[in-house]
Design brief:
Shape: globular
Number of domains: 1
Order of helices and strands: HHHEEH
CATH architecture: Orthogonal Bundle
Structural class: alpha+beta
């Protein structure tokens, strides 16, 4: 059985990878993971996204239409280039 912390870390990395390409919303992350054979529930994804937000790895932008979108913070984006 896969460790819960490992799973959470994987979800966070995948979400960061998608957010590094541009703004992304939770449902899109779920759809992308599903395409690659990972069955993930919102109850697993959203706590991981909230942890990324608390840790300063992503920012969240509320839009009038379309809900909330996450994107990688400038500091984290620069760190990824090295």
């Amino acid at each position: 059985m896969i460790d819960r912390d490992f799973s959470c870390g994987f979800v966070k990395l995948y979400a960061l990878s998608l957010a590094a390409d541009g703004e992304v919303y939770g449902l899109k992350i779920l759809e992308e993971m599903n395409k690659h054979g990972f069955s993930l529930s919102p109850g697993t994804l959203y706590p991981a996204l909230h942890a990324l937000l608390r840790e300063g790895d992503v920012t969240v932008h509320q839009r009038m239409v379309g809900g909330k979108y996450a994107s990688v913070t400038g500091l984290r984006r620069e760190a990824g280039k090295n």
